[in-house]
Input
Amino acid sequence: MIRLLEKIATYPRLLRVLAAVASTMLAIFLIDNILIYAADWPGLRKLFADIGLASAGKNFKGLEGAAVAQAWGQLIVSCAVIGAVVFWVLRSHTRALSSDANMYSSISAFVIRAAFWAVLLIGAADMLISFLRVEGLLSAVVGEHLTTQLGRSIFRGVYVHYPLMVVGIIIACFSRSLGFVWLSLMIVGAEFLIVITRFVFSYEQAFMGDLVRFWYAALFLFASAYTLLHDGHVRVDVLYAGFSERGKAVTNSLGAVLLGLPICWTILILGTSSKGSVINSPLLSFEISQSGFGMYTKYLMAAYLLIFAVSMAIQFVSFFLGNMAKFVSPVESTGNGGA
Output
């Protein structure tokens, strides 16, 4: 197996192309899902299904009118993006595998960083709104009409949560901290607040527990890719510790391709397969908990699975390239290998 991977590693440009296409397909898949279920586009899936039925000679009612232009336009743009990415890889033929591995790690880190800041801001803002609402103080702050509107999950999602997501992305562009420390501190503070208010002041509201769950779930899922970057996940180590550096690279490379990436794609495909799927359904309906005056963030917790799958998939690509770099030269082995 080592000899096989050594042979494959002699084609670094091919490995870089495959990694770039795999990462680009993640973005195309997510955009396709948004266009299908949020904008009512036919999407690439419907187009490919129609092409398959037509090639099989079956009678069916295919795409019509604007749907044809939308589907083919999306296919052309997707192919153009993939072509541009492949062209960039081929042009930068002197670029090392380790450099690409570090680049994908940086992309994964940015996704996690933006998500962390977003949930931090959304959690604090939604908790404040829920507190003012449950105590009957919100109307004095924003007026009766806006109070009624903020009681609707779709309004709060579009006009409060979404703008804060954009703010989180902007902060992530300038801040290099992943926010783990701050989010962990906020979770401890929120839990401590529950203890104090419950046992000292005999006061507790649904939004207080919702906030802890909202932040803790984010910490647990978003930190996975960061932990993979630093090889911090628990290994059931029977043989691995005794392997040579190249033996460890073989294990990590095969694990990333045969186990890691398929799991991430399974989550994405099953979670977004239909309007009623486990990820799409809460996001499209702005689902909230049944706790009355709790936080309106339950639907966002479904998106955590998307962030988890995407960030882990990108990090697995980085993990694969970093380990394959160890078969090229000693210089290449300085990249992100995780071992």
About this structure: The chain has two domains: 1-95, 96-334. The chain has a mean pLDDT of 84.
